[in-house]
Amino acid sequence: MAVKCNCPGCNDKLCLHKVPIFSSLDHDELVKIRPMIHHREYKKGDTIIFEGDIIDSIVIINEGSVKAYKNTSDGREQILYVFSEGDFFGEQNLFGNQVSTYSVEALEKVKTCNLSREMFQKLLYTYPEISVKIIDELGNRISRLENALSIGVRNVDNRIGWILLEFADKYGTADEAGIIIHLPFSREGIANYLGIARETLSRKFSQLENEGLIKSLNNKEILIPDLGKIAEIAGNS
Amino acid sequence: MAVKCNCPGCNDKLCLHKVPIFSSLDHDELVKIRPMIHHREYKKGDTIIFEGDIIDSIVIINEGSVKAYKNTSDGREQILYVFSEGDFFGEQNLFGNQVSTYSVEALEKVKTCNLSREMFQKLLYTYPEISVKIIDELGNRISRLENALSIGVRNVDNRIGWILLEFADKYGTADEAGIIIHLPFSREGIANYLGIARETLSRKFSQLENEGLIKSLNNKEILIPDLGKIAEIAGNS
DNA sequence: CGGACTGTTGAGAGATATCAATAAGCGTGG
DNA sequence: CCACGCTTATTGATATCTCTCAACAGTCCG
């Protein structure tokens, strides 16, 4: 995903190169935008934004990954997204409501590029292609949420299959024995992503392992011998 | 929501006036866009788009309302949205994937304005403010879906409260006894919206009625004496 | 007025949450 | 490098909730 920049005068701080939404801009344009960007750095466990905070800038992840989550009224932590290099958040808050609808926490060391509300809006008017990219990405997020909603409201098994597919796609590496998923977080995190109890996830995973559909290599890695069978569980059409 | 157009030469077919995403354009610009629009009409029960269909245009609702839903792998119908006058759909399919991720069915007589993929994209480049409006609206939809997901994955009571609030906001009229909601669809429809069994909804509604929190006037109207108490049920923070 | 669809209510089955106990991993400091 | 303690994960037993099946009531429409 990271685009190597070999142009003169461009150091690794020019994170804009990594960001898909700016990919249509040429180097000169990026250089113009550069001074508008503020850089931030966080360590694992830091909270970047609290739900309810006022946000005045869009945040683009330059390095590392974060989780975005809501604290529900029954005391759970519902994870909505895992964002990593090149992803952005805070865009909902650039127009009407300026209050963040979720908290964001660093899952590892994270570097961000922050672009103020005003600057970002100005960019959208100057470079319509940025808007188009954003609309595209928001459309993808919407599709994903719609899927999660329609799958997840009832059937837990489907939802587990679905999340395994998502993880395989984002964090999987091919191996001779199948696909190895490097999980972005612990079992508890996965349970919070799925909105189920930690214990239930444990049971389901044990069951899947007994059936040979997954193999738990360690707490952060899972081997999937046959992705097709997982897709069946997910009820993929 | 409907904007009265009193300019000369503008008949009621100039639906663009009703559409928030075009609200920043002046009359001359709208007139230019007008020839690009194709009009369609549907009657109650008509399916406007089937999940899986190839979509090549964005659809803006000029009159009436529709439901957008997915058929889940376990045979349910999961309703995702109710769109009405001024709302649009099909925008996810204008870039990458051209296949509709949901079906859309008319809940009553519906008139639409259809704008082709190519024309729509051209508009976005010509009028950046349209993109900004769309990003804003997509942000709202995302927030709503995130809410539905975090509320709904587990707690059914919260979800019922939440949907009552949504309905009160969209379809409610103030009355001396409280807020009267004119439901967009049947109990079965509401159950499909919530992703629960029809019978469960019945029971929950009976319970709420016993507690005096709602009053079922008839199958299409509900009275809410105290919205605050419903908000409590929704677990609103 | 009758039929079909929609809504309500009851009883039992199935699934997941919760509580509790045990086991396994992880980091820290000796 | 190992031992200790703390956190995370697994497994078991029970409780709670929602679904499903079934019967009945109500409503809409021809």
Q: Main attributes?
A:
DNA-binding, 2 domains, alpha+beta, 4-stranded antiparallel beta sheet, about 240 residues, homodimer, globular, 12 strands
Summarize the structure.
Chain A has 237 residues and is α+β, with helices and mostly antiparallel strands. In chain A, 36% of the residues lie in helices and 26% in strands.
Seen as an oligomer or otherwise, the chain set is homodimer
Largest interface (C-beta under 8 Å):
A-B, 51 and 51 residues
CATH topology of the largest domain in chain A: Jelly Rolls
CATH H level, superfamily name of the largest domain in chain A = Jelly Rolls
Number of strands of chain A: 12
- Fraction of helical residues of chain A: 25-40%
Please identify, by name, the CATH architecture of the largest domain in chain A: Sandwich
Provide the structure class of chain A.
Answer: alpha+beta
Q: Regarding CATH, which class of the largest domain in chain A?
A: Mainly Beta
> What is the gyration radius of chain A calculated from CA atoms?
19 Å
Biggest pleated-sheet summary of chain A: 4 strands, antiparallel
Shape of chain A: globular
Mean pLDDT of chain A: 88
Task: Describe the 3D structure.
The structure is a homodimer of 237-residue chains. Chain A has a 4-stranded antiparallel sheet with strand order 1-8-3-6. Chain A has 7 helices and 12 strands. The first copy, chain A, has 2 domains: 3-151, Jelly Rolls (Sandwich), CATH 2.60.120; 156-234, Orthogonal Bundle (Arc Repressor Mutant, subunit A). Chain A is an alpha+beta fold and 237 residues long. Helices cover 36% and strands 26% of the residues of chain A. The mean pLDDT of chain A is 88. In chain A, a hairpin with a 2-residue loop joins strand 11 and strand 12. Chain A has helices at 27-33, 117-126, 128-152, 156-171, 187-194, 198-210, 227-233, and strands at 37-42, 47-49, 57-63, 65-71, 77-84, 88-89, 103-106, 110-116, 172-175, 178-182, 215-218, 221-224. Chain A binds a DNA duplex (30 and 30 nucleotides) through helix 6. Chains A, B: This is CRP/FNR family transcriptional regulator.
